[in-house]
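BUG-222 | component: ligand-complex export | severity: low

The export step for iron/sulfur cluster jobs runs without errors, but we want the raw record kept on the ticket for reference. Input record follows.
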Amino acid sequence: MARGLRLPITELLKDFDAPVTAFDCGQLCAPLNNGKPVCCESEGVIPVLYHQEFVELQGRSDLWQAFKPTCKSEQVMADELPDYQLAHCTRSCFDERANRSLNCRSFPFLPYFDHDGVIVGLVYDYESAEGKCPLVDLPHTVTREYIRQAVGFWCAVCRIDEEEGDFYRDESKRLRRRFSRKNEDVPVLVEEGLAHYPTLRSDWRSLLAAGQSPPFTPYDRS
Ligand code: SF4
């Protein structure tokens, strides 16, 4: 059943519009993808918009249209997401960046919640982006302003929408398990660079007890 969420969509769209990189990152992936940026490829990935967001963007232009399920699995997906509108974009958003969905703006990242449940930066959405989005290997190219805006966006959404917060908190736990299996820290994009968050709660506690921050690779972000 839909939860009747009320999100400040106009403000969220306005405050989260910084480009991910200072250059057109579509130039990196489009040449290898028939000239189309990978994240604009709707095949296999159906953009998910908040209902309010869909209404607002439809009021601005005809870039977005409702996605009509064509098979049982797509219908199940639509039924399982009553708070959201499955959609597809009708053309390139190159000339109307302000009409991109929040889903598009946040790609290829997820918020990272530390062991204490605080959003401290961004992590790659490896399941969606690894092997597809070249930025996964270029964390230093992500701009400071993008990280600031994206973290602000996720903090606002997860504060209002507890279920969404719980979902991404669990995703961060999953990510810690994934990196723990590789015996590596979790790389987290922060405004000043790349922070390496420990996967074990005991290591995190030890850091805090010593008054230290996670090890850090500084980047001179633009
Ligand atoms: S975010 Fe990644 S997939 Fe999307 S245009 Fe930039 S490099 Fe390509």
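Assignee comment: Attached the raw record above. Strands lie at 48-50, 64-66, 84-89, 109-113, 119-124, 186-190, 193-197, 216-218.
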